[in-house]
């Protein structure tokens, strides 16, 4: 399957008419060889870049994001496209690495993308954003949550997801008011995203009077975290909150349980990938995660979950639905602008206040952040994520069903 030039999922959807069936077949053919299908080459498409990790430890998350983008593009294209043209996705591997990200961004600029929807690791998204802004290309982020991304004064950056300085206080409130803890250990992995979430959480915990007994980093890629866990254990925290990515989180919780640590283990919104359970096994049971709502817990995304599962043979990961909305709101801006000029698209994005996304109503504040970002907690039970608790309108913690 060519991930570099296509806007459709790997499997064409079934149609009720001959015309639609032929259309689906053409989309499938376009995925294999876009240049063979009339209207999908020679400037007859609108190119949207999708920079994500397609290699390295976060490749599963990147592939999931691309899959969400493909479903969005397929739906738009089946309805006639935008401005009479088809959406063409251009995925590019940034490997969650800053240097690779610069190269990936330049490749997308050279490919002629008019907008970008994607991103995963903030450490890659930051240099990508600079490159896209220099070229005047709007970047709609689906998963990158570091506050710096929308604090640089750029008018070309937008988010369909929340920020770490929203999630940090949310996590702290949950620990303080829902779990009633007194002592917390916070571990990060020294990446831009992880350190940012850790710092925001520690600050909020301290303001709430919670004793932060440990706040330090691990080095990703190690196979033995026992020295860190031994030190943390000696400080007797009620909760360990890990703000890094799912690959290390699985190893950490597995090793923590193996050495007999019984305290509650929590993770931030980069640990909400099903790979966590594959790595940790039964040790992940009972782990609590702060996150934006997953697709399976969104009332408006049931059909999306069914379509994703049917198309790709497994359920969606945490950010594919936010990418689906990122592509959708970008297409809406192109239609509103009646233009494929990047500057016009960015201006149209700023005017969107109530786009009906699968993740809820989407609008952007002057910085480009999502106006109404939502967080919940989920818990691992029997090798599955289940909804756990959320805050109601009064700020009270209530069980989710």
Quick structural overview:
The chain has 401 residues and is of the alpha/beta class. Helix content is 40%, strand content 18%.
CATH architecture of the largest domain, please?
Answer: 3-Layer(aba) Sandwich
Shape: globular
* Number of helices in the DSSP assignment: 12
Distance between the termini: 38 Å
* CATH topology annotation of the largest domain: Rossmann fold
User: How many domain modules?
Assistant: 2
Please identify the top-level CATH class of the largest domain: Alpha Beta
Number of strands: 15
Rg over CA atoms, rounded to whole Å, is 21 Å
Biggest β-sheet description: 8 strands, mixed
Order of H and E elements: HEHEHEHEEHEHEHEHEHEHHHEEEEE
Strand content: 15-25%
Mean pLDDT comes to: 91
Please describe what this structure looks like.
The protein has 401 residues and is α/β, with parallel strands linked by helices. It has two domains: 18-162 and 297-362, Rossmann fold (3-Layer(aba) Sandwich), CATH 3.40.50.2300; 164-291 and 376-399, Rossmann fold. 40% of the residues lie in helices and 18% in strands. It contains twelve helices and 15 strands. It has helices spanning 18-32, 59-78, 98-111, 122-134, 164-178, 192-207, 226-234, 246-258, 275-280, 302-312, 320-337, 342-351, and strands at 45-52, 86-93, 115-118, 139-141, 157-159, 183-188, 211-217, 239-242, 264-267, 288-291, 355-357, 360-362, 376-381, 384-391, 397-399. It has an eight-stranded mixed sheet with strand order 7-6-8-9-10-13-14-15, covered by helices on one side. A hairpin with a 5-residue loop joins strand 14 and strand 15 (397-399). Helix 2 (59-78) crosses helix 11 (320-337) and helix 5 crosses helix 6 (192-207). The longest helix is centred in the first third of the chain and has 20 residues, at 59-78. It is globular. The two termini are 38 Å apart.
